[in-house]
Design goal:
Length: about 350
C-alpha cells in the first residue's frame, strides 16, 4: 500500500513538473523577446561581459527591473551570470544576436511581437467563430500587416531567411536539383533558398514573391555572393498568375499558409505555368501521423508549430504528408518521391499526372 502510494506521489510529481514547465514556457519566450528587442544579445556579443547597470544604461532601462529578466535568462543558459550582477554571452545568446544577419533573434521577435501575442489572445473567441485569430486581433492578415509595418516586415523577412539558412545545406545534400534547367521559388522571400540551389547545382533561378518582399532580394543576394542578375526576380500575386519559364517550382513554407481552397487555386496556377514534364517540390515540415515521431531532428515539433501557423494565417495548421498528397492529387499532380532531411524540412516531389 505504502509503496503504491509513494509511487503515485512520485508519478504525480513528475506530471506536475511536466506541466509547470509547459505553463511557464511563455516567461522564457518573453524574456528572450524583450532582450532581443533591446539588442542586449548584440551588445554582449560585441562587448563581452557587462554589469546590469552598464546594460541598463545602454538600453535606457531600469537596472533593478532588467536584472530579473537577465537573471531568468541566465537560469536557462541564454546568458551566464557572474558575481556582482555581471552578465556574459553564451552560445545561445550569440544565436539570438540580430546584427550579423538573419538569426533566431528575428524568429523570436516575429513569433512574439505584440501583434502575434494579440492573436493568441483572440484564439479562444476565434475557435468559436472559426476566424483567423491574427485577423480578428489585427484587422488584417499577417502578410498585409508586415507589408504595412516596417519593423514587423523586416523582422518577418529576416526570420524566414534564418529558417532557410538553418535548413538549406541539409536539403541540398539530400535532394538533387541538378536535373532541372530552371528552378523557380514561389513565395521565395529574399531568395536565400534559390540562391543556394543556383550556387550548388548550376541551374537557372527565378524568384517570385510580392513586391515589398522581393524588393529586399537584390541586396540580400549580393550579400550571399550571388550576382543579382543570376536570378530572375519577378513580383506578383500567386492568386493572379504564376510566371512561366521554370521546369521545377519549389515552395517552402508557402502553401501551408493557405486553406485547402486557396491552396488548390495556387496549385492550379502552378500547373498552368509548368511544362508537361514539370515538377513541384514542396518543402515543409510535415505534421506526423499518430504513429510517427513527434519531434523533427532539429527539435521542432511540427504539431506544436502548426498551432502558431494556424493562429497567424488561414492555412490548415500545417498538414500531414497524406493530407498534402491528397490535396495535390485533387489538383492533378502525382507524388514521385518524399525526401527527409536532418532538419524539420522534408521534400515531397510531385509531377503532373498523366
Ligand atoms: C512564410 S513565408 C516563406 C518564405 C520562404 N519560402 C521561406 O521559406 O523562407 C511566405 C512567403 O510568401 C509570400 N507571399 C504571400 N502571399 C503571396 C502571394 N499572394 N503571392 C506571392 N507570394 C506571396 C510572402 O511574402 C512570403 O515571402
Amino acid at each position: 500500500m505504502t509503496a503504491t502510494l509513494s509511487q503515485s506521489t512520485a508519478t504525480s510529481m513528475a506530471a506536475k513538473k511536466q506541466l509547470f514547465e509547459m505553463i511557464l514556457a511563455f516567461v522564457k519566450s518573453q524574456c528572450i523577446y524583450v532582450a532581443t528587442r533591446l539588442e542586449i544579445f548584440n551588445l554582449l556579443y560585441d562587448e563581452g561581459e557587462l554589469s546590469v547597470d552598464a546594460i541598463a544604461k545602454k538600453t535606457s532601462t531600469a537596472p533593478d527591473r532588467l536584472y530579473f529578466v537577465l537573471r531568468a535568462l541566465a537560469h536557462v543558459d541564454v546568458l551566464q551570470e557572474k558575481p556582482g550582477q555581471v552578465f556574459a554571452p553564451t552560445e545561445l545568446s550569440n544565436l539570438l544576436a540580430t546584427h550579423k544577419g538573419p538569426s533566431m533573434g528575428h524568429l523570436a521577435m516575429h513569433l512574439l511581437e505584440p501583434a502575434q501575442w494579440d492573436a493568441w489572445n483572440a484564439l479562444e473567441a476565434a475557435l468559436h467563430t472559426g476566424e483567423v485569430p491574427f485577423e480578428r486581433a489585427n484587422g488584417k492578415g499577417v502578410y498585409e500587416f508586415c507589408r504595412d509595418n516596417d519593423w514587423s516586415g523586416d523582422v518577418f523577412i529576416n526570420a524566414m531567411s534564418f529558417f532557410t539558412n538553418h535548413s538549406v545545406d541539409a536539403l541540398l545534400d539530400a535532394y538533387d536539383f541538378s536535373r532541372f534547367d530552371t528552378v523557380m521559388d514561389v513565395g521565395g522571400g529574399q531568395g536565400g533558398l534559390i540562391a543556394q540551389i543556383v550556387k550548388r547545382y548550376g541551374c537557372n533561378g527565378m524568384l517570385f514573391d510580392v513586391p515589398y518582399v522581393a524588393a529586399t532580394a537584390p541586396a540580400y543576394l549580393e550579400q550571399q555572393g550571388i550576382e543579382p542578375e543570376a536570378i530572375n526576380i519577378i513580383t506578383g500575386d500567386v492568386f493572379q498568375e504564376v510566371p512561366t519559364g521554370a521546369d521545377a517550382i519549389v515552395m517552402k513554407y508557402f502553401i501551408s499558409a493557405w486553406n485547402d481552397e486557396d491552396a488548390a487555386k495556387i496549385l492550379h496556377n502552378c500547373k498552368k505555368a509548368l511544362p508537361p514534364h514539370g515538377r513541384i517540390v514542396l518543402l515543409q515540415a510535415f505534421v506526423p501521423d499518430i504513429d510517427e515521431p513527434k519531434t523533427a531532428p532539429d527539435g521542432i515539433m511540427p504539431g506544436i508549430f502548426a498551432v502558431q501557423i494556424n493562429v497567424a494565417v488561414p492555412g490548415g495548421g500545417w498538414r500531414t504528408k497524406k493530407h498534402f498528397q491528397a490535396l495535390f492529387e485533387q489538383c492533378g499532380f502525382q507524388l514521385e518521391q518524399v525526401v527527409d532531411t536532418t532538419t524539420n524540412l522534408s521534400a515531397m516531389e510531385f509531377s503532373i499526372a498523366s
